[in-house]
Amino acid sequence: MAIQVDVWGGDLHQYHVSKHQFDDFESAAKLMGEQIEAGNLCNVLHTDFIAPPERIAEQEAEMLKQLKQ
Fold first, then answer.
1. I need a surface site. Which of 4, 31, 41, 51 has the fewest CB within 10 A?
2. 5, 31, 29, 7: which is closest to 18 by C-alpha?
3. Contact 45, 3 (CB under 8 A)
């Protein structure tokens, strides 16, 4: 399992402070707890995620629709 944690800070949490990679959720949770206590926002991504094949075409069509606007 690969977990990425992006940390955001600043008044409106618009500044990307750091990016961390973990192999287990316990380590990721420890970092997130520390960052949240410090007032930062954390985004968590499971980087091993692969979209189901039947949803990929749907996602590509939506992207094309957005690009044509």
1. 51
2. 7
3. yes
Q: For residues 45 and 49, give the distance between their C-alpha atoms in angstroms, rounded to a whole number.
A: 9
Give me the numbers of helices (H) and strands (E) for the chain, helices first please. Answer: 2, 3
**Three-class DSSP category at 64:** helix
Largest CA distance in the chain: 43
Under the phi-then-psi rule, with left for phi > 0, alpha for psi from -120 to 50, and beta for the rest, what region is 25?
A: alpha
pTM score, whole prediction: 0.69
pLDDT tens-digit readout, 8-62: 999 999 999 999 999 999 999 999 999 999 999 999 998 888 888 888 888 888 8
